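cron nightly-structures :: item 1 of 1
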Amino acid sequence: MTILEATLLLLAGVGVFIAGMNMLSGELEKSAGGGLKRLLGKISNNRFAGVGIGAGVTAIIQSSSATSVMVIGFVNAGIMSLVQATAIIMGANIGTTITGILVSLKSLPISDFAMVLAFVGVMMTFFNPEKIKQIGGILCGFGLIFVGLELMGSSLKECEGINEFFEELFLKIDFPLLLILFGTVFTALIQSSSAATGIFITMVGSGALGLENALFLVLGSNIGTCITAVLACIGATVNAKRTALIHLSFNVIGTILFTALIWPLKSQTVSLLTKIPGGSEMQLAWFHVIFNVTTTAILLPFVKQLVAFATTVIPEKKSDGEESRQLKYVDDRLLKTPSVALMQVKKEVEYMAALAGTNFEKSVLAMQENAEQYSAEILEREATINFTNHATTRYLIKLSALVDAHDERVIGAYFHVLNDLERIGDHAENFYEIGMQMQQSGLAFSDNAKAELREMSDAVLRMFEIATEAFDNSESNRLGELTALENEVDRMKKELSARHFARLAEGNCKVELSPYFSSVVSGLERVADHLVNVGYSILNPTGSQSEAKKVLEEK
């Protein structure tokens, strides 16, 4: 085999290997959506739990970079603290070592069988059930990893020129700091420490790279993988940038500690590693595991100090005015994990529902008391509702292109719920404006009218509670109660309108109050209609009661 042919084969092997890694990671991420939700739902201030969650998520999706970007998205959205994020990133570094162990299996007599899985997986993707397609994608990605490793190994073993080139290259840079730099740059270029470690393991197995030099390359790869997180925090919040810095600091500190330890004791370290069975490939893979587990064990007690360091290096920006609004729970970085992004969108919708509920309650008070005292908070909250509606809608449009048919239906429901909540916010603003106009005109409802409106608004508030509870918990057991209250509100609208006109006829009410009273009663009835849509959205995307009844009958 000529050097040109071997070089082309080596590049092809690297390409197939990285493609297999990406395919395996992507398919695992899709199929493990529920598992990711459960793991990330257990985020707490317990450092050990955070490390476990980080390791678990990364082991599932086979990408520490993806986990780090996801964590930065959570921090950017303000739903995860820096302390929590630091523990998870430490765990992600442990989880990513699974890939090295996987690659080192090539040294065992199973690689031929593993490569056949690429064919089996492709065949499975031709079947219709989505689950079978996902399993096929996982098997195909797994098989392609070994196909890529075999191609790389063949190019290195069958062409002495290639082997000699790498041997001479690493002889020239046979200096720990240069090797660490090489590993850092190489990993930054391909943006995957897992892929870089896999390539180094293959080179060690072929004899193109000595184990003593490979140790420092692996240390460098752990720094290089942070580049993805650094790029992900561009344009993010201050805390998201601090998260990326903590990730980088963690790996740099670990690399410094290990370099200081194994540099003067290089031969002794290699001698200890050679006692691990499975050959040099397995030995390098286990060194990667030892590095990340040891670094985590050493630095885990100093999480708060790492956070303090990042906070000092990246201080809060001085605000020159009102900060631009941003969504509370979602972030574009979470789109890399659609199942998690969808979970966070639900929280955003729940947040918007809480805003709309508060504004409704305050606006009803504004009509009956001094409207001006509620002015600032109602208008500010309404501006937040409008922003949340528009921004979340744009986010859902992006997310809809990344999900399966079931989640598409959920997204359809969220679109309708956002619209209903936005309309409720508009009605609340109208109630406030009515209160302001009446106050400026020196008008006020009679005590009887206030009592009637209070009774009707209380019924709507009970509907708020039931509708949001149904949406939050995806439970339909109280939807019958919601419908009954809507019918009660409809009855009140007719009855209150009749009473109002009776008072007008008797001269017990000012004519100037008539349009205000009618507008409020009609507005309350429309809010009730929107709340029914919100509640029934868990059964039907449009919130249609007739369609929802069909769903319940089918169950």
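cron nightly-structures :: done
The chain has a mean pLDDT of 83.
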